[in-house]
């Protein structure tokens, strides 16, 4: 089971992290502010409200978090979401972003108190790396992009600083106190061997803790997230910022687990779910939204791990091409590509169809889109798939040039298992550490 410590991650591609939102005091109808202040109706405002003025939204041990800070993080969230977020949900996310910024501030402050330094040069290096990897942009271009969506490079750099500071603090103050015995590891190895051939599941989770006091509020948040995911929202994005589990930093990825490693409710759900299905289930201390990404058998070679050598023939459409205009092109593409007998004939065929050819080697069947996996398993060398794609992305046919049998499946090593147990314990202590920081903080 892959459980990871809270190391730096690209968190700005996602919605805000959820903790219990800060709530304002309310007044009853009999004690309305209008009555107590004797505010006359029909008045007017004298002077302008400048939205660019930075105002303190929270003060954490003397350090100010402004409305602008929240606006910049919110802009990242809205830009990263593929579906439109309802206005009511935006306000909920605002409150959650504020709590996330409070926690981030506490983590940076605690690291500083422990004389752990994160230099500007380190932050800049990390920022440049993720900017290039994720957006294929230079730092300058990415800074301009962030400004264009209502955010800023400074906001993202601070988030990176918080992640670096917290991970170093955990390494120094928490990890040294965690130990795992050889007997514990050997017991897990025995269970793996006993379960050889049994099913295991590749699962991702979004975990939200709940108490009797906030249970209803958390349930409403779960419903909002669940609805967004079903409409095409990114599970990884929501997990990275909403989930309170240690797996948030890796997009909620639990890795491959057997049912015995899961809480009873999640185990029951996983056994019933189809690949790609999403469910929300009650779990100890809260609610988990889980997605089943894949299934396989423990320590057993899986045919979907076969490595393929493919030739891709791609037919792309000019912008503005309608479905009616594309239909005869696709029909001809399908008819002609089904005549291919071997990869050697594919290049000439593609030339006649004005299509592009790309050679792809060492492609795992498991890594292909779901609809193509079984097609590939049934395909003989030299045969081609039916056309696959869309009007926007183009239509592709894959010709099977070769297939290597899947490698023998190996159980995780002694060292891997030990590290996983250590990571799990470190993560639990890190959550307690943050809880204590919240309790001791002066927040106004």
List the helices and strands and how they pair.
Blueprint: H1 33-37, E1 56-60, E2 63-66, H2 67-80, H3 87-113, H4 120-135, H5 139-148, H6 153-173, H7 182-194, E3 199-209, H8 215-230, H9 235-242, E4 253-257, H10 264-272, E5 278-283, E6 286-297, E7 307-315, H11 323-337, H12 346-352, E8 356-364, H13 370-378, E9 388-390, E10 394-404, H14 414-440
Antiparallel strand pairs: 1-2, 3-4, 3-6, 5-6, 7-8, 7-10, 9-10
Pfam families: Rotamase (PF00639), SurA_N (PF09312)
Protein name: Parvulin-like PPIase
Domain PpiC: 198-296
Describe this structure in words.
Among the domains are: 193-301, Chitinase A, domain 3 (Roll); 303-404, Chitinase A, domain 3 (Roll), CATH 3.10.50. A 4-stranded antiparallel sheet has the order 4-3-6-5. The chain is globular. The chain starts with 32 loop residues before the first helix and ends with a helix. The chain contains 14 helices and 10 strands. It is α+β, with helices and mostly antiparallel strands and 444 residues long. Helix content is 44%, strand content 17%.
Number of helices: 14
Mean pLDDT: 81
CATH architecture title of the domain at 193-301: Roll
Q: For the terminal residues, how far apart are their CA atoms?
A: 40 Å
User: Low-confidence runs (pLDDT<50, min 5 residues)?
Assistant: 1-42, 51-55
**DSSP strand content:** 15-25%
What structural class do the secondary elements suggest?
A: alpha+beta
Assign a percent range to the helix content: 40-55%
Q: What is the topology, as strand order, of the major beta sheet?
A: 4-3-6-5
* CATH level 1 name of the domain at 193-301: Alpha Beta
Indicate the radius of gyration in whole angstroms.
26 Å
Report the CATH topology name of the domain at 193-301: Chitinase A, domain 3
The 3D shape can be described as globular
The major β-sheet equals: 4 strands, antiparallel
- The tally of strands reads 10
Written as H for each helix and E for each strand, in order along the chain, the element string is HEEHHHHHHEHHEHEEEHHEHEEH
